[in-house]
DNA sequence: TATAATATACCCACTACTACGGATTTTCTC
DNA sequence: GAGAAAATCCGTAGTAGTGGGTATATTATA
C-alpha cells in the first residue's frame, strides 16, 4: 500500500513514518508539510492512501480532500486531526473520506484504520463515532451559519466594527446588526468572546 | 538515558517513542498524557530526561516544568511545543529548561537536542534561536502582563463582564476597568477580538 | 407557483465598555 | 527608608453593542 503523509509538524510526520515502517505491507512513498506540495505529488504519482492533518498553512485539509477526490479518485483518504468539534467533523465526513481518527488516538487506532480502509471499509475512531451519534441524538437546531453570516463572522473576527462591516459590504449597519444577532442566536453564544471561541473551534478564523 | 515523554496526543507519543527506540543509548521508560500522571511517575522513579509538550489538559507544561525542577532537580527537560510566540517562549526558557524544540522541527533536531542535553549543553532549535535574537533586536516595550492582569485577562476570556470580575475578585469595577485599560495598552490591541486572539496566541486561555 | 430561507432594513430602550482624565495604597527592591 | 512597580479606586461623557421587536425584498427549492 503506497501511502502519502501530510502534516505541518515535521516531528509528527517522522513519528508516523517510523510507526508505519514497521509494517511490511505499508510503504510511505512521500510526505509534505503543505497541501500544495501534496497535490503536486499526487498529480504525478499513484497514491493508494493519503493520510492528512486538517490544520495546514494556506490551504486546509478539507480543501485538499476535495481536490484529491477530483484529481485522483482512487486515492483513499484518512483524516488525522486534533479537531473533535462536531460541525467541522461533519463537514469533513460529508466529503466522503475513508477514515477519521484523532491525534489523541494511539498508533494502534491508526493501523486499524489503515487496515479497514484497505479492506474497503470506512473507519471512524471511537471518539468520532461518539460525536456523530451524540449529534444525532441531540440535533442542535441548525447551528450552521449561512454564507453571509459566515462572511460577517469573519469580519467581526478581523476586528471590524459593525459600521466598518456595513461600509465594506455596502449594506446598512442595521443589517449587520441583524446578522450579528442571528449569528449569536445560532451559535448559542451571547458574548463576543464566546463567539470568537466558536469561530476558533470551527476553524472559521 | 532514561526518558519520560508527555504529550496529550497519543499518536505523537507513539511516533516519538518509535523514533527514540532506534537509538540504542536511549530508553523510554514511561509516558503520560497529562502533567499529573507524569509527576506521579517522576516522584517514584529516576528520570534522566523529560520531554514534554506545553499544551496539556489541566496543568500546562510550564507548571509541570516548575514542579519537576523542585521534586527532581537532576531531571533534564526538553520542551517540545508548537508554540513559537515570543513571550511564551521566553516565559518557558526563564525556568531554566535544557532544550526547546518545535513540533515542526524534524526528528533529527530532537535527536540533536537529546545529545546536546546529555552532554550538559542547552539546545534551542533554530527557529527558537531566531525568535530570541529577534526579540533582543526589537524589544517590544514590555508587552508582558502582571499576574493580576493575566488573571483578569483569563476572566475576560471566560466571558465574564467587568461587573462579574469585580465581584469575583472583591475589587471595584473601576479597578477592573483600569486593569483592562492597561492590558489593552500592553498587548497593543484595541478590540476585544484582538485581545482574545492575543490570549490564544499566548496560551493564556 | 407556493413556500421557505435568506438578506435586507428599521426602531427603541438599555447596558457595557471606551476614552479621557486623575489619585492613593500596597508591595517589592535597592 | 527611598523609589519604582503594581494594584487599587473614582468621575464624566460618549460610543458601540445588546435585546426586544417588526417588516419587506430576493432567492432557492419543492
UniProtKB/TrEMBL annotation, chains A, B:
**Protein's UniProt keywords contain Membrane:** no
Q: Which residues form the Response regulatory domain?
A: 2-118
Q: Which Pfam families match?
A: GerE (PF00196), Response_reg (PF00072)
Does the keyword DNA-binding feature in the UniProt annotation?
yes
* Positions of post-translational 4-aspartylphosphate modification: 53
Coiled coil region boundaries: none
A single Gene Ontology biological process assigned to it is: regulation of DNA-templated transcription
Outline the extent of the HTH luxR-type domain: 138-203
The molecular function terms of the Gene Ontology recorded here are:
DNA binding
UniProt keyword annotations, A-Z:
DNA-binding, Phosphoprotein, Transcription, Transcription regulation
What superkingdom does the record give? Answer: Bacteria
Q: PANTHER family, from UniProt?
A: NITRATE_NITRITE RESPONSE REGULATOR PROTEIN NARP (PTHR43214:SF41), TWO-COMPONENT RESPONSE REGULATOR (PTHR43214)
| Stated name of the protein | Two component transcriptional regulator, LuxR family
This chain's source organism reads Belliella pelovolcani
